């Protein structure tokens, strides 16, 4: 067997051994929670449930929620260097003069993380609680 054939065979065999690589059905979704938090006003937190496809990005789940739930709206702008940038949620927009913005946080189990990517690249895990927090910098 040549080196290329051996490498190809081993790569294919490895794919069969790694759980989920070939067994995940396309279109299968998992639930995530989307919590809207306004840390500036006394507005109560609002939590929505939506679905995420396997290895799907957050903005896809947000679009799906917006299409099916009239109580959730968001806008974003496309930054040529960094991708989608969240501008507003339910009509409330960040403002440079007020030093306000929407922060992306994720609660996994008991831990809250700040992803190093935005809504266009972040891939939620099933049962994550994604927190969109209106706050100041």
UniProtKB/TrEMBL annotation:
It comes from the Eukaryota. This is Uncharacterized protein. The lineage of its organism: Eukaryota, Metazoa, Chordata, Craniata, Vertebrata.
């Amino acid at each position: 067997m040549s080196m290329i054939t051996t490498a190809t065979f081993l790569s294919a065999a490895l794919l069969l051994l790694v759980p989920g690589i070939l067994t995940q059905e396309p279109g299968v979704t998992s639930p995530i929670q989307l919590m809207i938090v306004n840390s500036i006003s006394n507005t109560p937190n609002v939590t929505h449930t939506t679905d995420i496809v396997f290895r799907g990005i957050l903005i896809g789940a947000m679009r799906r929620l917006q299409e099916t739930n009239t109580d959730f709206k968001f806008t974003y702008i496309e930054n040529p260097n960094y991708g989608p940038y969240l501008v507003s949620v339910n009509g409330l927009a960040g403002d440079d003069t007020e030093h306000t913005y929407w922060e992306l946080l994720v609660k996994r189990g008991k831990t809250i993380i700040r992803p190093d990517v935005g809504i266009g690249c972040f891939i939620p895990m099933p049962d994550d609680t994604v927190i969109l927090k209106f706050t100041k910098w």
